[in-house]
Amino acid sequence: MRRFTFHRLWAIVLKEFIQMKRDRVTFAMMVGIPLMQLLLFGYAINSDPKHLPTAIRSADQGPFARTLVAALKTSGYFRLVREARTEAEAHDLLQLGEVQFVINIPEDFSRRLLRGERPTVLVEADATDPAATGPALAAVRAVAAGVFNRDLSGPLARLRAKDGPVDFSIHAHYNPENITQYNVVPGLMGVVLTMTMVVITALAITRERERGTMENLLATPVRPFEVMVGKIIPYIIVGYIQVTLILLAARFLFGVPMVGSLALIYAVALLFIACNLAMGITFSSLAKNQLQAVQMAFFFFLPSILLTGFMFPFRGMPEWAQWIGSVLPNTHFLRIARGVLLKGSGPAEILPEVWPLVAFLVVAMTVGVKRYRQTLD
Amino acid sequence: MSAPEFAIDVTGVTKRFGGKTVVNAIDLQVRRGEIYGFLGPNGSGKTTFIRMLCGLLTPDGGTGTCLGYDVRAEQAAIKRHVGYMTQKFSYYEDLSIRENLDFIARIYDVPDRAAAVQHSLERLGLANRSHQLAGQLSGGWKQRLALAACLIHSPQLLLLDEPTAGVDPKARRDFWDEIHQLAADGLTVLITTHYMDEAERCHRLAYLAYGNLLTRGTVADVVASAKLTTWVVTGENLRPVAEALRGLAGVEQVVAFGTTLHVSGRDAATLDAAVAAVRDARHEWTKARSGLEDVFISLMDTARDNFS
User: Fold this and answer.
1) Whole-angstrom Cα distance, residue B148 to residue B25?
2) In the predicted model, is pLDDT for residue B2 greater than 50?
């Protein structure tokens, strides 16, 4: 009988449901992953980031300067966090990524304004991520047009020039042409490594367990640490090949500038790869089968793309999302890669991003080794 | 270290999973160079017991030594000197025979590895297949590979968990010849099996059911200690005879073997009385020596009554 029968179809459907019910983790993931996507896309992601940290370097304390600063604040895009005294200090703040903008108000600002000379206010931006700076810089231009309308009334109304009484000069550092690739390609390094490294190692121990080779391995004198590190090392090499490919592509296909030291990139990449591998091994020791391991890896991968500043500006996210992002190794590696390649950051500048990676590695590795049981009890 | 007389010497070994006692206070002594058969129904605790011997599981109770090392404290030392063959094939199917052996030899840090691998390939007749992937091998060849792999570090004790399940009779026979050869060279072998012919090839036996060790000794000891009386009925149309015997006092087992019927019971007098009541002239009735299988089935039935 080659005819379709409903009872056979139903038998398969029922069996699938029973198996789905047995694999609790898979079921949780089927609900958890869409929920996470919903929350991340719905609440955390914001392509119009506001309240970006800004430093002021003002040599003029007059009322006009204060009005200007107040107007920038009111626009909602700038959050004044620092006052810089010197140009060097301002530059350091940008380099370290502590501020996104520095607003320089010149000494004779008020005087020249009153003379109708359209004084120049220099806005310096860390433009590594054009998506983060773009809306704010557009807001600057809007502010410029109308900021002094109230002050310049009566006899001073003549100073309201058609293109505004103040000339805003915008200096986009590190990526002056606002080329998105300059930001995306170094970031891609972190994303590619996260994706491949976590998935590959997540399968590593689960596969041994599923195929029954684990029992054999456990019966030999091999130690858990030897198994872990032995499984990690081959993939570190694979990771290095990936880093090299991406750097080559960045240089020759996308023309990304490489201001900093490549040796530093490679050194930090080792740490970052180890973080991801340790994470994968930990998933591997938690998962019951290979499907679960892949799902866990995906669960980790999603925020690693969305909450790290790779796709959407980090500072545009609500605080809770930034907290989660700060735990993920990719967030820190992205900053390091962009910092070194685009800003020319050295070891001292990237240090604040290195220790979170070290902390992550230690925790993930400890959990992994603890979870990998040497006996079957 | 002077070699102690016993390769395995444990007392009171117990293992519980959850609230369930899987292995209940087992005492076992296995002499060096002995082939020791471990029998019992599925789920009787054989695998769990073996896993405790080789350091994969820690006993919840009991003490003892394996190759002179403490089974609780010196698991690492035990692992170095024991070859353990798991019930399920547990080598890498995507590695070739040679690569698998080489891997295991490296793990155990076997001196002169290349020669050791080559020797083990030749000894087990795997040399001309050495580049074949383990996953492509048939059951018999997989079993040979597994045996080669657990011998490569020259262990003093082999623990074989149902090594011949799913292997054809010829391969099984070759395998047992190999085991006897190894034992003759001084290796101690503890082997679990469900086959009676294999049980009879062991020097000594132990029978486990529901985590309890019910009997042990040589085949003759085991059969004698069961005190089982067996009648063999031969002839045509045995079904009515079997029906008539079942349920009679003293008749504990009625098992059909083709054209014969084995009727056994532990109380010889009542069994004889039952047989006398059913006995007819159309069949041939003889009193025979009980076989191992009769003994084991009887043991298992009694054990079920006692422990379940």
Assistant:
1) 33
2) no
User: Which residues in chain B are closer than 8 Å to A218, comparing Cβ atoms?
Assistant: 56
Interface contact B79-A219, CB threshold 8 A: yes
Q: What mean pLDDT is predicted for residues A154-170?
A: 71
Among residues B9, B68, B41, B11, the alpha carbon closest in space to that of B211 is found at B41
Q: Specify the pLDDT at position B308.
A: 54
Contact: A219, B82; criterion CB under 8 Å: yes
For chain A, strand residue ranges (E) read: 52-58, 78-83, 101-105, 120-126, 167-173
pLDDT digits (tens, 9 = 90+) for B192-215: 998 888 999 999 999 998 899 989
A377 pLDDT higher than 70:
no
B residues 24-53 closer than 8 Å to A (CB): 51
CATH number assigned to the domain covering A52-173: 3.40.1710.10
ipTM above 0.90, yes or no: no
Instruction: Report the candidate in B272, B207, B180, B179 with the shortest Cα–Cα distance to residue B44.
Output: B207
pLDDT of residue A374: 55
Please tell me the number of Cα atoms within 13 Å of A99 on its side-chain side: 25
Where residue A134 falls among pLDDT bands split at 50, 70, 90? confident
For residues B215 and B236, membership in a common domain is answered with: no
Claim to verify: residue B150 and residue B266 sit in the same structural domain: no
- Does B57 lie at the interface with A, CB-CB under 8 angstroms? yes
Give residue B306's pLDDT: 65
Is the confidence at residue A157, as pLDDT, over 70? Answer: no
B110 and B253, same domain (yes or no): no
Question: Is the Cβ pair B90, A216 closer than 8 Å?
Answer: yes
**Does B103 touch chain A if contact means CB atoms closer than 8 Å?**
no
Helices and strands counted in chain B (H then E)? 11, 14
Q: Give residues with Cβ within 8 angstroms of A116, minimum separation 6.
A: A158, A159, A161, A165
* Closest CA in chain A for residue B104: A220
> Do A375 and B58 lie within an 8 Å CB cutoff?
yes
Task: Using CA coordinates, name the residue in chain B closest to A218.
Answer: B56
Q: What is the pLDDT of residues B215-254, one digit of tens each?
A: 999 999 998 888 889 999 998 888 888 888 988 888 888 8
Contact (CB, 8 A) for B93 and B134: yes
Q: Does residue B127 form part of some domain?
A: yes
Q: Note whether A377 contacts B58, CB cutoff 8 Å.
A: yes
The dihedral sign for the CA sequence A53, A55, A61, A65: negative
Distance CA A109, CA A19 (A): 74
Domain that holds residue B272: 229-289
Give the pLDDT mean for A237-245.
92
Helices (H), B82-152: 97-107, 113-123, 139-151
Residue B161 belongs to some domain of the structure: yes
User: Mind listing the pLDDT tens digit for each residue in B127-172?
Assistant: 898 999 999 998 889 999 999 999 999 999 999 999 988 888 998 9
- State yes or no: pLDDT of B75 exceeds 80: yes
Residues 6+ apart with CB under 8 A from A348: none
Specify the CATH number for the domain of residue B169.
Answer: 3.40.50.300
Q: Is B79 on the interface with A (CB under 8 A)?
A: yes
Q: What is the pLDDT of residues B84-97, one digit of tens each?
A: 999 889 999 999 99
Give, for B85, the enclosing helix (H) or strand (E): strand B82-85
The partner residues of A122 in beta bridges, in order of sequence, read A104, A169
**Residues of A with CB below 8 A from B147's CB?**
none
Which of A216, A222, A375 is closest, CB to CB, to B86?
A216
